[in-house]
Design a protein that fits this description.
The chain is built from one helix and ten strands; from the N terminus they run H-E-E-E-E-E-E-E-E-E-E. It is mainly beta and about 180 residues long. It has one domain (about 5-180): Beta Barrel (Lipocalin). It has a ten-stranded antiparallel sheet, covered by helices on one side. Strand 6 and strand 7 form a beta hairpin.
Length: about 180
C-alpha cells in the first residue's frame, strides 16, 4: 500500500472512530483512564448523574447511520463522570462503551484500543458545558467541538457537536437524550 493510500486509510479509521465513539454511535469498546483537571472554583452545570436514553427520532446524525438504541449511564466521581453506554445499531451486536468526561470545567483523557487517545477539555459558559476533544491515532488527530445543554427541568440533554476528521468535511451531530432515572 502506497503512502497516500495508508494516510487515507488512517484518516478514514480516525474519522469512523470519531463519528462513532465520540458521538456515542458505538463502534469500538473504549478503555477509559481519566486524568481529571478540575477547576473547582469555576462555574458549574447541573449534575448529569443518572440513566439517559437517546431519542433517535429527535437526534440528527449528520448523514452518518445512527444507532437504533443508545442508553448512557453517567456516574459522578468527583469532577469526572464515568460514562457507560450500550449502543445498538441495526444488524450489529450491541456495543458497550466506557469513557470519562469532565463534570464541569476541566479535562479527561481516555485511552482507546489500538493506541488511540481521546482528550476532552471543557468549561462552563452561562450554565452550559462547552467542550473540545481530540482523538489521536497514528500521528493524526481528529477534533470535535460542541456543547451540552439541559432543558429547564433537567430531563432532556442535548449534545450539539461538530466532528472534523483529519482529512474530510466537518460533520454536525445533534444527540438528544431523555433522563429516565436520576442518581
Amino acid at each position: 500500500m502506497g503512502r497516500s493510500r495508508a494516510r487515507v486509510s488512517v484518516a478514514r479509521t480516525i474519522a469512523r472512530a470519531v463519528a462513532r465513539a465520540l458521538a456515542g454511535l458505538g463502534a469500538v469498546p473504549v478503555v477509559a483512564g481519566a486524568q481529571a483537571n478540575p477547576q473547582a472554583t469555576g462555574p458549574r452545570t447541573r449534575d448529569l448523574a443518572g440513566i439517559w436514553v437517546l431519542d433517535v427520532a429527535k437526534s440528527d446524525f449528520g448523514g452518518i447511520p445512527g444507532p437504533s438504541a443508545d442508553t448512557a449511564v453517567y456516574v459522578r466521581d468527583g469532577y469526572t463522570y464515568h460514562v457507560t453506554q450500550r449502543v445498538t445499531s441495526p444488524g450489529r451486536s450491541p456495543v458497550l462503551l466506557a469513557i470519562d468526561w469532565p463534570t464541569d470545567s476541566g479535562s479527561a483523557v481516555s485511552t482507546l484500543p489500538g493506541g488511540a487517545t481521546m482528550a476532552v477539555h471543557a468549561h462552563v459558559e452561562q450554565g452550559v458545558q462547552v467542550f473540545t476533544a481530540e482523538l489521536s491515532q497514528g500521528g493524526q488527530t481528529a477534533t470535535e467541538s460542541g456543547r451540552v445543554e439541559l432543558s429547564v427541568d433537567g430531563r432532556v440533554m442535548t449534545r450539539l457537536q461538530t466532528v472534523i476528521p483529519p482529512a474530510g468535511e466537518p460533520v454536525k451531530i445533534r444527540l438528544v437524550y431523555t433522563l429516565v432515572h436520576d442518581k
